[in-house]
Design goal:
about 150 residues, mainly alpha
Length: about 150
């Protein structure tokens, strides 16, 4: 996956040492999770708009799910290391995949750049607001097609 990651990150945003830059890490993580999310699906699992917070909110289809989804979402948002973010994000992406809820992977990559560059509080605030906001826009998911 690194071969493809390096190709999408402009040269001026690439790392200057043997360590990947925040942009390279973010692109790699977003592309890897998009591949996991999209795997075996015909419908597109990347959709412009919204954040990880709004996508996680769409998983809450009843009051009994609110607490468990909130805990998983907060684990991603509050992770203190890149490895922690990746670990907890994997579980949340798995839930999005299972329920057919798309995510804006370009936006996720931008948010991860900010998180890895010391601007995580800004991202967490946006995600948290979006998670708490009740979106009135109907979204077609696997839940809608299995009735």
């Amino acid at each position: 996956m690194w071969e493809y990651t390096i190709g999408v990150v402009p040269k001026h945003l690439q790392g200057r040492s043997d360590e990947p830059s925040a942009h390279e890490w973010a692109a790699h993580i977003a592309m890897t999770f998009f591949a996991l999310h999209q795997q075996g699906r015909v419908d597109g699992m990347t959709r412009p708009g919204g954040t990880l917070g709004s996508a996680a909110r769409r998983l809450v289809t009843g009051p009994d799910l609110e607490e468990s989804i909130r805990r998983r979402f907060q684990a991603v948002a509050l992770a203190e290391t890149r490895q922690g973010v990746v670990h907890h994000l994997r579980a949340l992406i798995g839930l999005l995949r299972a329920k057919g809820v798309p995510l804006d992977y370009g936006r996720l990559a931008d948010d991860l750049v900010d998180m890895f560059s010391g601007r995580g509080d800004r991202v967490r605030l946006r995600w948290g607001r979006d998670f708490r906001r009740i979106d009135q826009t109907p979204v077609v998911t696997d839940l809608d097609t299995k009735e």
